Every structure is written in structure tokens, then in C-alpha cells.
Amino acid sequence: MAETSNSENKTSEEAKANEKNSRSITLEETKLESMNSEESTQATEPTQTQTTEAADSELSLQTELEAAKKEVESLKDSWARERAEFQNFKRRSAQEFVSIRKEAVRSLVSGFLNPIDNLERVGATQSPSEELRPFVDGVAMILKEFYSVLEKSNVIRFDPKGESFDPMSMEALSSEEGDQYSEETVIDVYQAGYYYKENEDKFTLRPARVRIGKPKS
């Protein structure tokens, strides 16, 4: 009986010891799991923070890039407008310069035309006397020099006798009709005309005053 009692006591003590060890192991496992969970949380938190910061940085860069693109487009539009305005300014300036030059040439040359006309009338004297011959020849030489100077300045004298009538460069003072005329033709020149020519630019300084022949109506 005593042996049985001792055996039971021993078994009871072993069971208690095993239960105590089991509780201790369970507690240790719980602590270990808690520590692992904390470490996992601590390891995860910086990663999430870094991801958020990276996303914010990317969004900021994207915003700055869009703003830069808009600014570039704005500058391109502004440059295009400025260029167009400058081209228009150059064109207007060139047109104004041509207009001013035309008026300057017309004003300058017009002052010489009447004296030249008078010299031409003297030079056109038919059968001058021996006394007047040297004078008439001298006038003819002066006229040639005048014409040469004017031509060097791109001022051209024109006598359109026999040519088709051009109302842009001629002024008809009189006319006659006849079957011999197929179109309006200059048959006589009362006063020569002058025009200014530079490259392809040409404009009349003074129209030629003429008599024309016209087909019968």
C-alpha cells in the first residue's frame, strides 16, 4: 500500500511538472511570437513610409514636368507671335521705304524735266541758220549728258511713237480713227515720258503725252 501511494504521488508530481513545463513553453512561444510580430511590424513600417515618400516624389516630379511642358509651349507660342510681328514690321518698313524712295525720286527728277523739255525744243529746231548751228549742236550735247546722268540713276526717258497705247504710262491728248488701225496706237508724241526702274520695280514718273490712232467704231 505504501508503495502504491508513493507511486501515485510521484506520478502526480511529474504531471504537475509537465504541466508547468508546458505552460512555460507556451509562454515562451507567445513571447517569441509577439517579438516576431513587433519585428515584422517595425520592418514593414519603414518600407511603407519609403513607398509613400517615393510616390509623393514621383507625383511632384510629374507635376513639375507638366508645368515645364506648358511653359515651353507658352514660350514657343510667344516666339512664333514675335517672329510673325517682326516679319510684318520688316514688310511694312520695306514698303514704306519703297514709297518714300519713289516720292523722293519723283520730286527730284520732276524739277529737271521742264528744263530738259525746253532744251529738247531748242534741239529740235529744223534747219537752223549757220549762226545758230553751234548753239543747237551744243544743246544736243547737253541733252545727251542729261540723259546719261538720268539713266545712271535708273530714270529712263521713253518715246512711245508707234507703240500700243498704255494708259498706265501714257496720256492721250488727242486721237483719230482710221481703218489702218487695228488697235489704239501712238501716232505722235507731244511730250516724252519718264519712268524709274530698279530690278523688277518700275513706276512712271511722268506719262508720255501722245496722240493716238483708233480703229473705226
Automatic annotation (TrEMBL):
Q: Where in the cell is it found?
A: Cytoplasm
Mention one GO molecular function: unfolded protein binding
Q: Which InterPro entries match?
A: GrpE, GrpE_CC, GrpE_head
Keyword annotations for this protein? Answer: Chaperone, Cytoplasm, Stress response
A Pfam short name = GrpE
One GO cellular component from the entry?
cytoplasm
Q: Which biological process, per GO, is one annotated for this protein?
A: protein folding
Q: Which PROSITE patterns match?
A: GRPE (PS01071)
Matches recorded under Gene3D superfamilies: 3.90.20.20, Head domain of nucleotide exchange factor GrpE
Annotated Basic and acidic residues bias: 10-32
Establish whether keyword Chaperone is in the entry: yes
Residues annotated as transmembrane: none
Which PANTHER family does this entry report, sorted A to Z?
GRPE PROTEIN, GRPE PROTEIN HOMOLOG, MITOCHONDRIAL
Task: Note the subunit structure.
Answer: Homodimer.
Which family, according to UniProt? Answer: Belongs to the GrpE family.
Q: What does this protein do?
A: Participates actively in the response to hyperosmotic and heat shock by preventing the aggregation of stress-denatured proteins, in association with DnaK and GrpE. It is the nucleotide exchange factor for DnaK and may function as a thermosensor. Unfolded proteins bind initially to DnaJ; upon interaction with the DnaJ-bound protein, DnaK hydrolyzes its bound ATP, resulting in the formation of a stable complex. GrpE releases ADP from DnaK; ATP binding to DnaK triggers the release of the substrate protein, thus completing the reaction cycle.
Protein's UniProt name: Protein GrpE
Species of origin reads Leptospira weilii str. UI 13098
State the organism's lineage. Answer: Bacteria, Pseudomonadati, Spirochaetota, Spirochaetia, Leptospirales
Point out the gene that encodes the protein.
Answer: grpE
